[in-house]
Amino acid sequence: MLFTLFEAAKNSPFKGPLTVAKCDSPAPADAATDYSCEFGSNKYYALCGLGGILSCGITHTAVVPLDLVKCRIQVNPDKYKSVFNGFRVTIKEDGVRGLGKGWAPTFIGYSMQGLCKFGFYEVFKNMYSGILGEENTYLWRTSLYLAASASAEFFADIALSPMEAVKVRIQTQPGFVSTLREAVPLMYKDEGLGGFYKSLVPLWMRQIPYTMMKFACFERTVELLYKHVVPKPRADCTKGEQLVVTFAAGYIAGVFCAIVSHPADTVVSKLNQEKGSTAMEAAKKLGMAGLWKGLTPRIIMIGTLTALQWFIYDAVKVTLRLPRPPPPEMPESLKKKLAEAQE
């Protein structure tokens, strides 16, 4: 499956404004040799996947304490009444080390998710661009971002689901074991392989809208920042300045991501805490108000997380000298058509 998608994207005939590898500043005709690989090559997609591993694995592991408190607020709001109360109760009962519960499945699961999320996004974006053509790619670029990110996240969640189930069980079920190597055989013994995938559908419900917002909002925010806020074109910005814009756009996207995906996130937490329950049963038990418990810490967590992920991902591209296409511009052919229509 991976090889087929890579080949389809690599052989795409389109190299339009969303995909063509352009230099960040005026350079000689042979400047493409400054890149470590060709845009759309298998090496390019593999290195993008590596960037995804680093961006998602590192950031999600770094916020495990906040994620743990957020999950406990979602599944037991009577005991964990707020962020600060949640930290205080957790430290009192488990000590400071207890805040790190679930770090191992978090790191593994979200590294695999990042590999598929960012790697496949680049694949699908290039492939769908080839289907649409240059002009339609520009006109329908937001739809392109949404479709490519949704397609990528479908596969990313399949990779994430087993470790997400283990993580939530470790963090929220009282008396359960606290390490990955103990949790996996216990869960397999009790529930079989299905226990690791029982929350896959609500995970899709949480992550696909989240990722669609994450990528589409980020892409359009970057475009708007360079157009209306940054006082000079991206080609005239230093790499450092470009990364600052990336971080700002990532944080804005992250806030919207948290709000859109929060109810499904609460269901996932409740579902993995209780054996044998379904997504509908968990949602009914939580109620409308309960579905929004823990939103504040999640906005803080996801906003910071998304900003850092985009920053790390873009920094990896800079460090590894990958092609980084600038924000899209209207094709000359489309400009001529619009000018002719106005005459």
Automatic annotation (TrEMBL):
The record, for SUPFAM superfamilies, names: Mitochondrial carrier
Repeats (Solcar): which ranges? Answer: 43-127, 140-224, 241-319
| Single GO cellular component term | mitochondrial inner membrane
Region of interest: Disordered: 324-343
One of the protein's GO biological processes: mitochondrial phosphate ion transmembrane transport
Q: Which InterPro entries match?
A: MCP_dom_sf, MCP_transmembrane, SLC25A3/Pic2/Mir1-like
Record-linked Pfam families: Mito_carr (PF00153)
- GO MF annotation list: phosphate transmembrane transporter activity
Q: How does it sit in the membrane?
A: Multi-pass membrane protein
Q: Where in the cell is it found?
A: Mitochondrion inner membrane
User: Which controlled-vocabulary keywords does the entry list?
Assistant: Membrane, Mitochondrion, Mitochondrion inner membrane, Repeat, Transit peptide, Transmembrane, Transmembrane helix, Transport
Composition bias, Basic and acidic residues = 332-343
Q: Please describe what this protein does.
A: Transport of phosphate groups from the cytosol to the mitochondrial matrix.
The similarity comment for this entry is: Belongs to the mitochondrial carrier (TC 2.A.29) family.
The protein's name in its UniProt record: Phosphate carrier protein, mitochondrial
